[in-house]
Amino acid sequence: MSEQQITDYDVTIVGGGMVGLTLACALARAPGLRIAVLEANQPELDWAEGSIGLRVSAITHASRKVFEQIGAWPAMLAEGVTSYSQMHVWDAAGSGEIHFDGADIGNPSLGYIIENRVIQAALWRQAQQLPNVDLLCPARWQQWQESQQCLSVSLDDGRVLRTRLMVGADGARSAVRERAGIQTKGWGYDQHAVMAIVRTERSHQATCWQRFLEHGPLAFLPMHDNYSCIVWSTSPEQAVELLALDEAGFAARLAQAFDYKLGAVLEVLERGKFPLRLQHTLDYVKPRLALIGDAAHAIHPLAGQGVNLGVLDAAALAETVLAAHAAERDLGAMHTLRKYERWRKGQNLTMMLSMDGFKRLFGATQAPVIAVRNAGLKATNQVLPLKRLFMEYAVGSRGDLPQLAN
Length: 406
Ligand SMILES: Cc1cc2nc3c(=O)[nH]c(=O)nc-3n(C[C@H](O)[C@H](O)[C@H](O)COP(=O)(O)OP(=O)(O)OC[C@H]3O[C@@H](n4cnc5c(N)ncnc54)[C@H](O)[C@@H]3O)c2cc1C
Known about the structure:
Layout (H helix, E strand, L loop, with lengths): L5 E9 L3 H10 L7 E4 L17 E4 L1 H9 L3 H7 L2 E3 L1 E6 L5 E5 L9 E5 H13 L4 E4 L4 E6 L4 E5 L4 E9 L6 H5 L4 E17 L6 E7 L2 E7 L4 E8 L1 H9 L2 H11 L7 E17 L3 E2 L2 E3 L5 E2 L7 H21 L7 H30 L3 H16 L1 H12 L11
Parallel strand pairs: 1-2, 1-11, 2-8, 5-13, 11-18
Antiparallel strand pairs: 3-7, 4-7, 5-6, 9-10, 10-11, 12-15, 12-16, 13-14, 14-15, 16-19, 17-18
The structure holds flavin-adenine dinucleotide.
Flavin-adenine dinucleotide binds next to helix 1, strand 3, strand 12 and helix 8.
């Protein structure tokens, strides 16, 4: 391969999803850094007016601040962001319930519901404008060779990139992680999340609703008008059965499972299902390599934290790399990368295990456990300082936050 076909980058990010693009935009604030993003699939940048994408995320204030600081937030706002001010959670197997109100933490908003395609498109367009970011798409790496100073990455179209740091932001089934020989620990939940966009008879009142059912939680996330995105975690068999129903049958089952909290379900747009598992990598870094987002950790969606943890990974890694760059230290050296790993691994694990604990607590069917959890919900609902603490974690204002999220 001749020298002309090789392009040098400081950082090469594999995966131009929500997390990889956040990292690219955050790193690009140092004009001296050259950044490549390899994305296998052309992202959806345009869509029919009025259509709603099936994949939707609850976004924390911490993530919103990161998006603001890297310049992508105005485009998200322009395409559609629903702010929610309250959250209501209750147990189908008892009378326990808990209600969170943003006013209790002095914030009229507890967070935002945004379509994933809106987030990705805003970040993509922002990255396109940055002179030190190259978006290579469609592009996949084929192999890479390590030397002391860099990695030489061959792409499937014959190009070769030389990079001082490679970042795997390629999702839960990360091929970068696999090629690097980084092991994961975790377990399947034997659950699928059924997602759908629906319109309900009654207004959602800018509230996130979640009812814990026998097979898992059913959440309604508020969108524009009376539309909501539902995330229904259930057994794989029930997920297949729900998706096989016609629209009227699905609408009836959904309204009943939700105890008619928002009245009848009047319209069902797209539907789909996603398998759920908990997964955490044993290492976040190796020499010249780091993992962020779902490539490092996959979490149960019941508290809508997955992408938010990934955005904080991206902001923390950017801060670590930019500090090394400013001090003229090696970006890909282990003493640089370990700082990122120490910063994020413990915080991600804490959140993952808390969500796993909630999932197990609410999945239990033994009468004594049901009684205790209902009593716990009621008690927590009455203790404002405890509720404030929960809310501060949920909005992302607790923990050791990167500067971009402050
Ligand atoms: C049902 C459900 C509901 C959820 N709800 C929420 C929520 O409300 N809030 C929240 O915070 N999180 C939520 N999550 C989690 C969230 O969706 C993920 O955490 C998030 O998508 C991870 O983003 P990512 O960029 O790390 O990975 P991904 O979104 O998986 O993106 C990876 C990117 O890498 C690309 N790629 C993969 N392999 C290659 C390759 N070899 N070469 C080049 N490119 C490659 C892919 O095309 C993709 O664009 C939910 C998850 C599920 C399943």
